[in-house]
Amino acid sequence: MSPPKIDRAGVAPELRKLERRLFLRNSLSIGGLSLLSGCALDDNASVEQALSLMSRFTDRMQALLFSRQRLAREFDPSRITHPFPFNAYYDESDVRLVETSSWRLEVSGLVSDKSPWSVARFRTLPQKRQITRHICVEGWSAIGDWSGVPLSVFLQHVGADLRAKYVNFRCFDDYSTSIDMATALHPQTIMALDFGGNPLPPAYGAPMKIRIPTKLGYKNPKYLASIEVTNHFPGGYWEDQGYDWFGGS
Amino acid sequence: MLVMIGSGWQIYNASPILPFEFPTAVTLGGWLGGGIAWHFAAMWVLMGAGLVYVVYGAASGHFRNDLRPAGPRSVVRDIGQALRLKLSHKAGHYNAVQRALYTGVLVVAVLTVTTGLSIWKPVQLGWLTWLFGGYDIARCIHFAMMSLIVGFLLLHVALALMVPATLWGMVFGRRMPDSDKESAS
């Protein structure tokens, strides 16, 4: 093959296009570079930083997409998954137990009434039931049947500042997570006391779990110990390790 | 695109839908959280690129002129030519097989993006998830479309390697300065 002869006048307009291409190619090569060096860059601090920056951008877009009026689909009881899978950051044999009668939920932060709550006291508030799909960040999903007190009802009851940014949950299995106020006030966000019409069994978070069908599984804390209304970003167990904070579905 | 595929395989490994996992050597992110972070970061980049492509394709007439599928007869004719290694490669012109494949892969790309959105936001975009037959089916379609794209990429690069003159144009966007005349290989 003979080397190509170049007709300078003919290529002039092409050159301009090439220039544009090269610019685009250069900007793309940053991505290509990170691919070539593969795993080594996974640990690179600046890559981590860029990824967490993008993750915060994704969080903002998720918050924009979220609507307090849009409801998660509710299913017929025949669609409930049996058995509903156990999932935590530890094995089922390591589930921690508490005595339901002595359990109290601590209430703190921007609320006017900080007295602790017993299960019996929660039973006096209006209850709501839902059969919804629990979607795990891993990709699997299962349909369950939860009932309990809408979080919005509880927050109003204790005089929470509903203009605060976050609601933070801490659990007695050392798990934690936090959500945005918009999701906290969503009608399907409930403080679940029952599963399948019976008190929550230990595997599913006894005595109380926060059930949020508009968020992924890791935003649905079990074994609740305390609730806090705050304007300081609280993070969470998985979120601090790199899962996106909003975790909406 | 490769970032989307590598990180997608990482996410797949967290809860495989088929009886196999992708080897860690070809996954991106190191763990599920890392894979997700890469997947969403690349998603915004790809969305931007896709938007530019769609606007350009519609405005310049690229879709209308170059990608509108030709009749089945010309597809058969060009497949015959390709198998006899006599297919022409007039730069800047797609033959009937290319038209069919490139249009097909665009449809696959649209389905990949829409099923992806439907399993990311099954509540906020619930109508989309419903359209694909629910969360689990949408997830399988997303995986199947990824497989088609990977197949297309492999085929595409293999065919291009058989006709090295096309590589210049694929990488730099234009044909080699001297290749205006039809070249058969």
UniProtKB/TrEMBL annotation, chain A:
- Transmembrane region positions? none
A Pfam family of this chain: Oxidored_molyb
Oxidoreductase molybdopterin-binding domain: which residues? 95-238
The UniProt entry, under SUPFAM superfamilies, shows: Oxidoreductase molybdopterin-binding domain
Q: Which PANTHER family match?
A: BLL0505 PROTEIN (PTHR43032:SF2), PROTEIN-METHIONINE-SULFOXIDE REDUCTASE (PTHR43032)
Instruction: Return the protein name.
Output: Oxidoreductase molybdopterin-binding protein
* Species classification: Bacteria, Pseudomonadati, Pseudomonadota, Alphaproteobacteria, Acetobacterales
